[in-house]
Amino acid sequence: MRGLWADLADLVLPADCAGCRERHAVLRHGFCPACVTALGVLRPRAVRPTPAPPGLPPCVALGPYAGPLREALLAYKEHGRHGLARPLGALLAEVVVAAVGEVRPVDLVPVPDTAAAARARYGDHLDRLARHCAGRLRRGGWPARVRRPLRALPRPDSVTLDSAGRAAAAEAAFRHRSSASGGPRRTGDAPFVVLLDDIVTTGVTLAAATRVLTASGWPPGVAAVLAATEKRHHL
Fold first, then answer.
1. Whose CA is closest to 5, among 35, 25, 48, 46?
2. Strands 150-152 and 174-176
3. Are the C-beta atoms of 23 and 14 separated by less than 8 Å?
4. What is the pTM of this model?
């Protein structure tokens, strides 16, 4: 999967790099050479919030929520740079490969946006990433498809909530979409379920989504995310 940057077309018009926000004459799919290098050295690793919420599956992240990765996610999610879905989706595919291990059929289940968030972002940002992720995996020989057995219910902005409020909001955030998923699966021959998100912080969102999926016959084997926040320790 490490051929990511080799097959992305360069942009020859000056533009702001998504990773450092500096203006450059040549960008490789939205990134300057320095940020391409910084992203290219990241390697997926297991992460676990402390404390981990009940029901959180094993989780693998590409890197910490910092530097070019953080800036690229902000540019993609909050500033409308939808063209970043392709390189970010390809990076997410690397996380899936590391998380799952051997080549096998996988069902990618993105954590869905609420309807309000999708409208504000002109589409479900994680669904877009998941589609590029699946395409990258298929080109690498992995049988992969995107499934959408979850729907997100309206919930308050997490910025206004404390940790207990965020946990309560996450617990009631999702419902099973039986019409979209085809109902419970036979686990013996079903593809491996990978839950996708862009960032893991406390893990409550992934845990809540996992509980709904498990109860409806879609138990995730692992969660794959692009970035993990890191706790800061104050002296």
1. 35
2. antiparallel
3. yes
4. 0.85
Could you tell me where the DSSP H helices lie in the chain? 33-40, 67-78, 85-100, 115-120, 125-139, 163-171, 178-181, 204-215
SS3 28: strand
Residues 172-225 have pLDDT tens digits of 788 898 765 445 555 556 899 999 999 999 999 999 999 999 999 999 999 999
Q: Which two tokens stand for residue 61?
A: 């992240």
Cβ-based neighbour number of residue 213 at 10 Å = 23
- Please, what is the Cα angle at 146 between 114 and 49, to 5 degrees? 60
Indicate the residue type of 126: L
Nearest Cα residue to 125 out of 137, 112, 134, 135: 112
Who's near 69: CB < 8 A, 6+ residues apart? 19, 39, 42, 62, 63, 226, 227
H-type helices in 82-187, by residue range? 85-100, 115-120, 125-139, 163-171, 178-181
Cis peptide before 51 (omega within 30 of 0): yes
- pLDDT, tens only, 17-33: 999 999 876 677 789 98
Residue with token string 């590391």: 98
Q: Alpha-carbon distance 174 to 196, whole Å?
A: 14
Residue whose pair of structure tokens reads 């942009």 in the numeric block: 11
Distance (Å, rounded) from C-alpha 14 to C-alpha 233?
40
